[in-house]
């Protein structure tokens, strides 16, 4: 069986995973938002006018992971068993470090959910701080770890 996003006529379709075995699967993604030192200090001291940046971004990332199939064409809707989004200030590098871990027991992986969680958390940090720092950068969004499934494990080098 071939897993492809195209049918025999070349039309885009969702991959049929019904023949695949259910396995425990996990994906960890990471990324960062770099900002001016003053912006990081505002986040650290919870002095951003829109509220607690890290708490809101964490919630946004979790909610986004659960809605990935609504955002990414042809992505399977999944009943995630666990989503964790962690944000930490890296004051030395003037950044908010973001890590998302998604888990499921299912027929398809959760890489897209983890990547979506990091991306939306980063966009939320940007949105909440853009009034004071439009020069922030969302950087290095990537898959870090993937376990489970037919293709085997992956770990960032």
From TrEMBL:
Catalytic activity reported: (8S)-3',8-cyclo-7,8-dihydroguanosine 5'-triphosphate = cyclic pyranopterin phosphate + diphosphate
Name listed for the protein in its UniProt record: Cyclic pyranopterin monophosphate synthase
CDD domains for this protein: MoaC_PE
Top-level taxon: Bacteria
One MF term in the entry's GO annotations: cyclic pyranopterin monophosphate synthase activity
Biological or metabolic pathway of the protein: Cofactor biosynthesis; molybdopterin biosynthesis
EC identifiers of the protein: 4.6.1.17
Family: Belongs to the MoaC family.
């Amino acid at each position: 069986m071939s897993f492809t996003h195209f049918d025999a006529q070349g039309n885009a379709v969702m991959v049929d995973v019904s023949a695949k075995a259910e396995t425990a699967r996990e994906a960890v993604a990471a990324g960062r938002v770099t900002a001016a030192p003053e912006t990081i200090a505002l986040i650290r001291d919870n002095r951003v006018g829109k509220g607690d940046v890290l708490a809101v971004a964490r919630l946004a990332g979790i909610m986004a992971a659960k809605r990935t199939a609504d955002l990414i064409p042809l992505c399977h809707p999944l009943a995630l068993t666990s989503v964790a989004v962690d944000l930490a200030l890296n004051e030395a590098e003037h950044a908010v470090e973001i890590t998302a871990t998604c888990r499921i027991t299912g027929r398809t992986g959760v890489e897209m959910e983890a990547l979506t969680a990091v991306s939306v958390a980063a966009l939320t940090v940007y949105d909440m701080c853009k009034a004071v720092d439009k020069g922030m950068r969302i950087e290095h969004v990537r898959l870090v770890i993937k376990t489970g499934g037919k293709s085997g494990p992956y770990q960032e080098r």
